[in-house]
Amino acid sequence: MKHFSEMFLLHxxxxxxxxxNKKFYSLFFLLAAYSTFxxxxxxxxxxxxxHQNGTARNQAIGGAMGSLGGxxxxxxxxxxxxxxxxxxxxxxTPGFRFGKGKSNFRGTTVAGDKQNQLGLGTTGFVFGGFGYxxxxxxxxxxxxLADFNQSIxxxxxxxxxxxxxxxxxxxxxxxxxxxxxxNSPNISLPAKMAxxxxxxxxxxxxxxxxxxxxxxxxxxxEQENRVxxxxxxxEIAFGVGSEIDKKFMAGLxxxxxxxxxxxxxxxxxxxxxxxxxxxxxxxxxxxxxxxxGYGLNIRGGxxxxxxxxxxxxxxxxxxxxxxxxxxxxxxxxxxxxNLFGPNNAYDSVAxxxxxxxxxxxxxxxLMSPTKIIISGAYVFREEEKIERQRGFITADIEYVNxxxxxxxxxxxxxxxxxxxxxxxxxxxLYKGAFNFRLGGELKFKTVMARAGFAYYGRPYKDSExxxxxxxxxxxxxxxxxxxxxDITYVHRLNKDVNFPYRVNAPRTNTxxxxxxxxxxxxxxxxxxx
Amino acid sequence: MNRQILLLAITSAVLSxxxxxxxxxxxxxxxxxxxARPQDEYVQVNDDDDKYRYDxxxxxxxxxxxxxxxxxxxxxxxxxxxxxxxxxxxxxxxxSYYNPYTSWNYYYNPYCxxxxxxxxxxxxxxxxxxxxxxxxxxxxxxxxxxxxxNSTVRVAPATPKSVGRPVYNNSNSSGLSNTLNKIFSGxxxxxxxxxxxxxxxxxxxxxxxxGSSGSSSGGSSSGGGVxxxxxxxx
Lengths: 529, 234
Hints:
Distance between the termini of chain A: 53 Å
CATH architecture of chain A: Beta Barrel
Number of strands of chain A: 23
Strand order of the largest sheet of chain B: 1-2
Helix content of chain A: 10-25%
CATH class of chain A: Mainly Beta
Oligomer: heterodimer
Strand content of chain B: under 5%
Distance between the termini of chain B: 58 Å
Radius of gyration of chain A: 27 Å
Number of helices of chain A: 8
Largest sheet of chain B: 2 strands, antiparallel
Largest sheet of chain A: 14 strands, antiparallel, barrel
Number of helices of chain B: 7
Largest interface: A-B, 154 and 109 residues
């Protein structure tokens, strides 16, 4: 597959140079000032559907921190928890994530590539015991909120639909001639490239002029899709927590997100019948897509202690406002057997042919949904003598409605109206979900043992689309002589789906079932300062 | 990686040397109970010789010393020490706003150093907008009819669990051996009776298009722009 990809890219490059020399492109595209958009609802979901990261101690207890407090992770979940600090900490949390994906596409199960990646849990400073009666605490922490490093691979036979079907549909619905479509801003790049390479064409079938997709000629196609992504969301949070009185704590934090996402998609589809006279051997689509930007959000919450040992918390996370910039590039190739003679079967084209050679760049704004967290904790015992501290149990319930994801204009040059179909697609696809985090700790003077569980519910409205994130965790901790060390293992059992393309009703869509199983080892080294 | 480990080790060493207050005892656990930070047992003497620093501490100390010395004599200063030094008429850090150096002069005096930022923009790669980089169809996204199994072929023994919704076609109808025979014999072509690709009528607004199937030629675009390359014919 990689060999093929390299060959494909070389061919794309060569092809593009030839076309450049022939000056097939026009200044029309350089002057075009259309509002553009390549972000899909799935890409929006990716920027808000991820599990809560934190310190090793926090991750060992499932990430629950809505009411417990006393851990720097509170700065990212419920800043009221900072108020439990009367002392100051510096913590450092490196991590190592590994695992292997698995997929099932139309009955074919394939194991994915191994994934190894360094990570960063909550790291930074908490300064406790400042201000009036030493009731205020401040936190400056950085956390890798989301990790987009992932390798998805699936393949299988398909006797129903082709990648080219929605492209042919799009062209047919446009009522444009081929040349008009190749130069129309309303036709997508993949459709243009399919037309350019004659994969999508016009033909008289039984005397009727029709739009055809030559990849639909074989009765069975083998399809494979490889999606390699990297990047993540790193958040720097500035928070303050205040102990209003012994039974009430409040907090507020501001999060600055640094967002980076890169994705490479290799899609390949070939004739699985072996027939060399049906005008289709294979098609390939290669896409390079990046999103960069930043995000801003505010979190507020409070924790009440109605009686000793009991803590109840409520936290609200504002939507994260994310002005984003994306770049896009793609290539397309088609081999049409002997349609144009034995030496003229293969052709390819790059998206730059249609963009006049320029980098395709778009800007837009995305708002993530609001999060609401309610939480409870029982801490046995809240006493100064460490020998008498025995442990705790805590749980969070979080509600987030992914329908609240919203695309909007980046600046005054674009209008919100053009994002309406994308927001309608979000409404049609996604729903609200409850997330659960549960964990506990047993404390033996200086040594602690922990266990936790977290479940992030399905964001998809349709129950056929299996999507969930589930984590089982355990860890150990040691605190003595001004420092502490926590080590945690988190095992993830995630499920999701991936659509290689989407077709219009009454035709039916096909998708791959994905599993992402693996582990994450985290270590927090902390010092009292 | 080695540099990261080295950085981690140095950071740890530096910070561990800072935890003197807790080095001899147990580390407080803020989750359970967070004691107040340890205080110095003796009054710390500040040897700072900067007697003219402009901060609260200096003014408070001076005020208290004067009041202790003579409670009544300095009463007329109360207002200044309590209020005026924070008022808009007195710039706490730069002195009076009427001070020519700390007010207008600081910003407008041509002899004061000013820094001019010279911006020399580098050449940027051309960026363009393409209206539809991807094929997006709202109808495709709202189409929740799924078909995840093949009706004529089967290649893998493992299949997804069946689902309750009748609209889905998640089971193969023919056996494995039959399927493999079809695939690898090359006899399974587009004439398969159970396979019916979609048909799409083509009614372009411009007339005179009779279809290009099989012998397409490019370069017929009017007004420049992109057109299909000629592929000749067979």
